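Q: Got a minute? One more chain.
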Amino acid sequence: MSFNHTAFNSAYKTFIFIALFTGASGLTVNAGSRAKKIQRSSHTEQPAAKITNRSDSSARKTSSHRLTPPEARRLSRAAMQRERAVEMRRLQRQREAAARLAAIARQRALDEGMRNQVRSLIDRDNTSGEDPEVRRVAVNALGNHAGTVVVMDPGTGRVYTIVNQEWALRQGFKPCSTIKLVTGLAGLNENVINPGDSANISNTNRIGLTDALAYSNNTYFQQVGGRVGYDRMITYARLLGLGEKTGINAPNETAGQLPASRSGYAVNHMSSHGDDFKVTAVQLATLVSAMANGGRLLSPRVPRNSDSPRSQAKVRRVLNLDLRTLGYMVPGMVGAVNYGSGRRAQNSQAVAGKTGTCIENGTWIGLFTSYAPVVNPKLAVVVIARGADAHSHFPAAVAGRIYRELNGRFGTPTNLQIANGRSLMTDPRAALNEEDDDEGEDSAKELKVTAASRTRGTTSSPHILETSMSSAISISEPARSPRPNWRDSKTPAGSTVKRVLMTIPIKPSETKIVPSVSTRTIAPQVQTRPRRVSDLQR
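A: Always. Here it is, folded:
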């Protein structure tokens, strides 16, 4: 049998083909299985990948596709704008900080310039006839500060010393809240203020005259001034010596300034802040002295010859006011020193005073006008300061130091505790309304008073004035009928207000002084009806 090569070759090829086909199919199946396993594993890892991509969107976008030129330009511009904004804010903060530092430096330079000026002015003061001890105490109390001090006898008008006579005699200042003394007297004498009730200063708060003076409440005195009116306010200001020279025996005294005619809220603000008034320290000294001595407006005198006898009082005029209105101002002025805006003037003797703080022509002005002791006053002290030295009631601190150092010489054994506490104040943290006020802004903080007390005054020989620590008032339209009989009203039986007797002795010489101008002299006995403004200038 011969071997068939052709058949063998054909069978071999067939076998090889089948083997190759079978192997390829197995490889295909294995590859498919492995692909499915990889796919399943990839599905289990997908959430982590998504979380990673979500946390870095910019990286995903960059990896998913290439940025086009417009997109790259937009991203570049946004990044540049963010960097520019950050840089602008940084530069703005630097400019603001530099501006603050520059303003502080300018203010310090101005303050130092004023202090240097005051030192040179004090060196040029004419001290002839002044009391050396009082001057030494006043100069030391003022120290290296920009201000002026006047110390005089409120009963005779004798000037003990004037520190910085240029400012005290020849430069007028805005009176700020010291004008409230004029407003209070005008309101009492015009029946706008009626002791016995309190006044609404907001929807929920009421306040009386004593606390309004003690805390220098602007809203209260704006209401009073608005109801008194411009004309009568100016009349009382003139009566108390503002807008005219005091007649002191010193050269080049200025008369100050009274505001021009105004109406509406301008009258209210003028009555609490002293807008457009110009007063001198000597004028304030004579004004507060008239309140201390029973209504005699004196001309201050400096005894130029040290060997001359004690200066005699030279009366410019007798204030044609109800004397009891002066007494109703006392508790508030004492309260200002004991617990109000003038606490830095506290002294072992009872001090009656009024503070003032405001801005004039971009510069702070601080004032304090006062007298002491309340019984038989021996000293009237007025301090005015400018610039940084006007803050924090520095003038009251100067006056307090003067009173304390001169207590041994001018003190009195009688020490009455009038307005010794916060009386009916329900908020012991009540802010001072005048402090830090701008010329056009009033403090929003107000006092809360929940009850009212009555004030009772009687006069006899010797005069006895019985006052409560928080005499209250109501604001009403000026009445044209005689005052109600509140002067004879008794203190309510349930009142917890402590009443204090304040003896005011009458000096025998006071009834013999003849005014230097033609004015009507107040009779020794009490008037049954107060004079009004229309009667003052007759």
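A: The chain has a mean pLDDT of 75.
Q: Perfect, thanks.
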